[in-house]
Amino acid sequence: MFAKMNVAFALLGMMLVASAFAKDESANECEWKAEKCSPTYSSFMAHEGKTAPVENDLRQYASQLVDKSFHFLIMSSGFNKYELDRPGFEKLYRKISDKAWEDAMALIKYQSRRGSFGHLVQPVANEQYGKVLDVNELKSLQFALNYEKTMAKEAHAIHRKVSHAHSNAGSNDDSYHYDPDTAHFLDENIIEYQSGVVRDLAGYVHNLRHFTDQQSASDLGNHLFDEFLAKA
C-alpha cells in the first residue's frame, strides 16, 4: 500500500513539474538549442515578441540614479564656495551623490546578472543642472527631500510591477511579471535606504526652519545646523 502511495505521489510530482514547464515557453529551449540557453526568467523574459517591461524600468531607473548623483554632486560643490562655506551641507549632499552612483552601478550589475544589458538611456533633454546652485540652505533641503520622495515612489512602482499586487484579476499566469528576486534586490539596496533618508531630510527641514525663523538669527542658525551636519 505504501509503495502504491509513493508511486502516486511521484507521478503527481512529475505532472506538476510538467505543467509548470508547459506554461514557460522558454523552459525547453535550452535543451534543443545551445544558443537559446540564457539566465533570463520570470520578469526578465521577453513575452510575445516584446522586451520585458522590467528591463526598461530598471534601465530608466539606473539612468535617473546617475542623473541624481550629478545633481547632488553639483549641489554639494555649491556649498563649498568661499562665499558660502558650509562643510556640513557639502558632506550631506556628497554622501547622497555617492550613494546614488553606487546604487546605479549595483542596478546595472544586477541586470547583467539576470541576463539583461543594463545600459543607460537618454537623460531628460535640456536638464538644467545649474539650477541647484541657486538654492540656500533650507531650500536645498526641501529640494533634496522632494527628489528622494520622487525616486522612492518610482522604486515602489517598479516593485509593484514585479509583485503579486500587480497581478491581473482572474489570471493564473504571473510568470511574466512576478519576480521576488528583483523585489528583494530593490528592498535591500534601494527602498530601505530611501525610507530612512526621507525621514532624516524631513526632520532636517523642520529643524532648520525653526532655527532660522527669526531673520536676525538666521545666519547663526544656519551656521549651527551646518556644524551639526558636519559632525553627523
Automatic annotation (TrEMBL):
Binding-site list for Fe cation: E148, Q194
Signal peptide as annotated in the record: 1-22
The UniProt record lists the keyword Signal: yes
Alphabetical list of InterPro entries matching this protein: Ferritin, Ferritin-like, Ferritin-like_diiron, Ferritin-like_SF
Keyword Cell membrane: no
SUPFAM superfamilies referenced in this protein's UniProt entry, alphabetically: Ferritin-like
GO annotation (BP), single: intracellular iron ion homeostasis
Ferritin-like diiron domain segment(s): 48-212
A GO cellular component entry from the record: cytoplasm
GO molecular function terms attached to this record: ferric iron binding; ferrous iron binding
Domain of life the protein comes from: Eukaryota
Key words, A-Z: Iron, Iron storage, Metal-binding, Signal
Residues in coiled coil: none
Family assignment from sequence similarity: Belongs to the ferritin family.
Task of the protein: Stores iron in a soluble, non-toxic, readily available form. Important for iron homeostasis. Iron is taken up in the ferrous form and deposited as ferric hydroxides after oxidation.
Name of protein: Ferritin
Protein source organism: Anopheles dirus
